[in-house]
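tool_call: predict_structure(chain=1)
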Amino acid sequence: MGKAIAYLRVSTQQQHRSGLGIEAQRTAVGRFAEVEGIAIIREFVEAETGKGADALDRRPQLAAALAAARSAKCAVLVSKLDRLSRDVAFVSGLMAQRVPFIVAELGRDADPFMLHLYAALAEKERRVISERTKAALAAKKASGAKLGNPSNIAAAGVCGRQIQIVAADQFASGLLPVIDAVRRTGATTLEAITRALNDRGIRPARGTRWYASSVTNLLSRANKLAEAL
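tool_result:
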């Protein structure tokens, strides 16, 4: 049986006191460890934001979890990648600590390359959504619309759909290098690509597994983006 150090994090002291979030992470980590035959030998809990270049300095429990894992020669186990950070540079810095990380949501086989990729995609998606949302709100305000007015619900829905389209385009573009790498291994059919993505622990934007139809949609979106360039 393998072993791991569990690391749980919420962003605020209020969440920490209520136990909401922490218990959900503990349950997810425990269930994953049981299925994978991993013994959790220690647990570290933190209530601190993951933002900022000095995030590791402000997260002593994460530093302690890294030290404990290094001493025990095992991995640090988290429920989701964003429990480490939503910042790709910070995640890259953690990978440089030479302590393996296991993200329950992504599966045991997600290697550092995949963790970097998911962090980069998540960061880019959040930035695009934030920028588009601010731009849409500014445009509405400039046109005289009253923000928050129930009469603006339809317009807000249109803006929301536009933001979702942009996010989906960014996700498809980010996965193209992975698709190309898969194809170079000889997986050229839809079924082979689908199987390779699932075997590598790569998850779609929605759901937990790829299907031939979702790969088709991904490739179609990517092709349209390429034609538009």
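agent: The longest helix spans residues 153-184. Proceeding to next step.
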